[in-house]
Amino acid sequence: MGSRFMIKAVLAFMVFPFMAYEGLSRGATFGAVDADRPVIMEVRSTINANGRTILPDFQALGRLLSTGEEIAVSVYKREFETLKPGDRLPVFAVPSQPGVFVTGKQLDESRPLFRVGAFVFTWHLPAAIVGWLVVGAFLFQRAAGRRRP
After folding, report:
1. 146 — phi, psi (to 5°)?
2. Cross-strand partners of 35
3. CA–CA separation, 43 vs 83, rounded Å?
4. Is 72 helix (H, G, I), strand (E, B) or coil?
5. Residue 130: is its pLDDT beyond 60?
6. Is 52 exposed, middle or buried (0-12, 13-18, 19+ CB in 10 A)?
7. Is the pTM of this model over 0.90?
């Protein structure tokens, strides 16, 4: 097999475990969130919490209007760029992690959520499994074809 092909195969097999983890992690986080009960947060400021340009941690800082509790919520780059002090942002409490809130955009991106028994996962997990099967079958087929005289 060519070295280019092997590099692509190794990279693909490195991506699929991350996707599987992401599917399980998001399922655990967002599976218990009640999307019908947003809480309004008044934005005080936005920051890049880790200060990095690669893999930044954009956050909106503010307070919940219902309780006055100060919170920090991770936001996407577009939200980071458009949110201004005084803006109101609907957020959702994560019951499994007290004091943690997520935005509606994060919740929407993780849909659909699948439930199988006690496990909740997002589309990332089945996509990773299918990817493993497709790439694995292709590698097997290619390797078997190379061994024949």
Report:
1. -75, -25
2. none
3. 8
4. strand
5. yes
6. exposed
7. no
Burial status of residue 25 (CB atoms within 10 A of its CB: 0-12, 13-18, 19 or more) = middle
Q: How far apart are alpha carbons 113 and 12 in whole angstroms? A: 24
- Dihedrals φ, ψ of 32, to 5°? -100, 0
Which tokens sit at 136? 């694995």
CA 56 to CA 130: how far, in whole Å?
30
- Taking the CB of residue 41, how many other CB atoms lie within 10 A of it? 25
Is 35's pLDDT higher than 70?
yes
Partner residues linked to 102 by β-bridges: 92
Query: pLDDT per residue over 55-98, tens digit each?
Result: 899 999 999 999 999 999 999 999 999 999 999 999 999 988 88
Termini Cα distance of the chain: 15
